[in-house]
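pinned: reference chain
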Amino acid sequence: MTEAVPSIKPTRRELLVAGATLAAAAPLAAPAIVSAQTPAVEWPKLPYADDALSPVISSVTISFHYAKHHRFYYDNMIRLVADTDLKSQPLLDIIKVSMVNPARIGIYNNAAQFWNHSFYWNSLSPKGGGAPTGAMKDAIEKSFKDYDTFKKDFAAAANGQFASGWAWLVADKDKKLSIQRSGNADTPVVRGFTPLLTIDVWEHAYYLDYQNRRADYTAAVIDKLLNWEFAAENLSKA
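pinned: its structure tokens
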């Protein structure tokens, strides 16, 4: 298993406070109009209804995670690049350029978190989970011996990520698969890997449904939601 990469501290750590007020979550917010200054970066729609992942991930969690947290990173990124040379750049270019400039760490944190979250929603499917078939089955067996080994290692990466972060299934340029974990906004897409799937282990991804039981959330996502069709599509592009 690939070791954890260095963490990058976000400009603002979001702490989700569970309580009665959160239980009465507002309906999923409609996306605002994208700024004309950033035509290359659009606000993505969820690839399914906000209750489609229930009971593994509830519509209440989705309403906060997608419409509040994810949207927060997007709006911050739009604001931060609005008057810069990055304002019309594709998202991955914004991430890669800002990553190497300490003066632009705020742009990097928000842009990378926006990208990570957009990728996360597509890593999940109401019809997902279980062992993959076809090309993904072959790739998993070639890189991990069997699906059970992959499942164990992927869960360990997600559960072992200290504090906030991500667990990733990635492919290198030779299409060999490996598992990585990253802290905060860090993402393997800037290190030459092709992400195939990810699990978000920031507390806002699971706390309303699972409280401190991250391992239960991780197991449920792997068993019932992982989108192997999305992973296969990404692998074909590696």
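why pinned: The chain has a mean pLDDT of 86. The first helix runs from residue 20 to 23.
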